[in-house]
Amino acid sequence: MADAQALSVREISAEQAERRLAGLDALDPTGMTADVRDLARSGRAFAIEGDAGNAVYVVTVRNGCAWVTAAKGGGSVDLTEVLDRVLVAQSQGLRALGCQTARPGLVRKLKARGWQVTGWILRKDLTA
Could you report the per-residue pLDDT of 20-69, keeping only the tens digit for each? Predict the structure, then answer.
């Protein structure tokens, strides 16, 4: 885990987020990742930077919940651990944090940090 003192968080533009999120769609095993350009513009974008690596995330607030709409790490930054701490600090006054993932490992890591699975994502393919 990276030393929390060695990391900084700053808001970045949607254009900067789009560049940093490049390739995110290729990492999604389900192919459900939306257009990276749309994700970068779906909320407020932030960069986590430090000697251990860099990360980017986009968050939007809906119905009292801070939703992570996109995130991508790099280097040895444990994005799950850092993002959980950062979002709790950024989301004072809100009722919850939320995200959607198809990655079982991320579900396990978030559950260990107090997150709960609260539903299912249903999808119907309209291109067939």
Answer: 998 877 666 666 666 888 889 999 999 999 888 889 999 999 999 999 99
- State the total domains in the chain: 1
CA distance 101 to 33: 10
> Could you give phi then psi for residue 2, rounded to 5 degrees?
-75, 145
Starting at the earlier edge strand, list the strands of the sheet with 44-50.
Answer: 7-12, 44-50, 53-62, 65-72, 96-99
Number of neighbours of residue 125 by Cβ within 10 angstroms: 5
Please tell me the chain's helix, strand, coil percentages from 3-state DSSP, rounded to the nearest 5: 30, 25, 40
- Do the domain assignments include residue 119? no
Residue linked to tokens 């939320």: 98
Claim: this prediction has a pTM higher than 0.85? no
